[in-house]
Amino acid sequence: MESLFDSAAEEAHRGQEPLAVRMRPRSLEEVIGQRHLLGPGTPLRRLVESDAPMSLFLWGPPGIGKTTLAYVVAGATKRRFVEISAVSAGVKDVRAAIDQARRELGMTGRQTVLFVDEVHRFNKAQQDALLPAVENRWVTFIGATTENPFFSVISPLLSRSLLLTLEPLAEDDIRAVLERAVADPRGLGGRVTLHPDALDQLVRLAGGDARRSLTYLEAAAMLADTVTVEVVEKAVDKAAVRYDRQGDQHYDVASAFIKSMRGSDADAALHYLARMVEAGEDPRFIARRIVIFASEDVGMADPTCLQVAVAAAQAVEFIGLPEGRINLAQAVIHCALAPKSNAVVKAIGAACDDVRGGMVGRIPDHLRDAHYPGAGKLGHGRGYKYPHDFEHGLVRQDYAPRELRERRYYEPTTHGAEARFAERWAKIRSFLRGG
């Protein structure tokens, strides 16, 4: 009777667990996404199919399955699963977990999976405490991190472990997670009808985070048996972002975003940035638009704008969302408040128009490559004047083809820093062309 009671109590407790916990995969076959890590012969497959302990770091953004994979490894290999959060645990907790794992291994031969969530939050002393267990293989160590472990994890620990990079979940992956949760007896068991538009909305709101999508679905299912977009909006306690990444709204919001920066309205630009971020827009798309804007609409009026935009794009690749939105916001504010000039895009546009129109001309002989044998006999390089040999690094000679000597492409404005370039370019152009 006691075992029946325990079983019933366990079942009741399982029903009270969050949907994201109940729907946690029980085998590698149930894991959605991360196909590059789950195929035959991959490290995770070898770990599951082998009794040998192994140390892993799982690196990727939140909600894409790091904890799930650790659970699956422990369950599939019948190992004890011990989870430590680096947010609250200290050296004492780490050593206690390792000691218990050693005792278990010595007494029963059963191995332990020691999972450390957010391991990048451990300081050096805490990470050092893991080394003996990893080095002697007293545990199968799995560390989860959202930050680049090459910067946040000590070298001795990293060198003794295998680093696996998890990819963000695609929209189809999130959709599959939600559909499974609606139908699976462990989840909602078909008791709820999920409207297709509401499913799409949940996918967008999740932003690639499976745990978030299940949390929103569970909240919506508590409000109604038929989950619509309106129910989802109420459940997540926020207005749903009406944004179709493949339709008009995608282009409308992106257009308004660029035009607000061009109009120097930082507040409006930040609003549209937030709409894209909250809708689950690919942050790399946003970053690319800012980089283009930095040259197309600011250009030489503030040359540092391109540096900031590129740095933001690299930061987004480095840390991802949600923190990457801060880097994007900084770049947006810089671009919006910078003096504006479209002289760069007009210059390259005019030059390309001439080339497409057949105005190419013959490259002057003194500018042609003279390094290969026989080039001198053709007159290539003959008469070239090396500018560094002259005062101010300038010397008068023809650079453009004869047919293009009078063409003017770069016409700088007097906005911001471009005023200095305008003055210098006017003097240089006059000198070079004998004006």
In short, what is this structure?
With 435 residues, the protein is of the alpha/beta class. The chain has 21 helices and seven strands.
What does this structure look like?
This protein is α/β, with parallel strands linked by helices. Among the domains are: 34-165, 3-Layer(aba) Sandwich (Rossmann fold), CATH 3.40.50.300; 263-337, Zinc Finger, Delta Prime, domain 3 (Up-down Bundle); 343-432, post-AAA+ oligomerization domain-like (Orthogonal Bundle). Helix content is 52%, strand content 7%. The strands form 2 sheets. Strands 2-3-4-1-5 form a 5-stranded parallel beta sheet, with helices on both faces.
Key attributes of the depicted protein:
435 residues; Zinc Finger, Delta Prime, domain 3; Rossmann fold; post-AAA+ oligomerization domain-like; 7 strands; five-stranded parallel sheet; two-stranded parallel sheet
Roughly how many Å is the radius of gyration?
A: 30 Å
Counted by DSSP, the helix tally is: 21
Element-by-element helix/strand order: HHHHEHEHEHHEHHEHEHHEHHHHHHHH
Oligomer: single chain
Structural class: alpha/beta
Secondary-structure arrangement, i.e. CATH architecture of the domain at 34-165: 3-Layer(aba) Sandwich
Q: What's the main sheet like?
A: 5 strands, parallel
- Unreliable spans are 1-13
- CATH third-tier fold name of the domain at 34-165: Rossmann fold
- By CATH reckoning, the class of the domain at 34-165 would read Alpha Beta
Share of helical residues: 40-55%
SS elements, strand count:
7
Within the largest sheet, what's the order of strands? 2-3-4-1-5
β-strand amount: 5-15%
Distance between the termini: 104 Å
| CATH superfamily label of the domain at 34-165 | P-loop containing nucleotide triphosphate hydrolases
Q: Quick check: average pLDDT?
A: 84
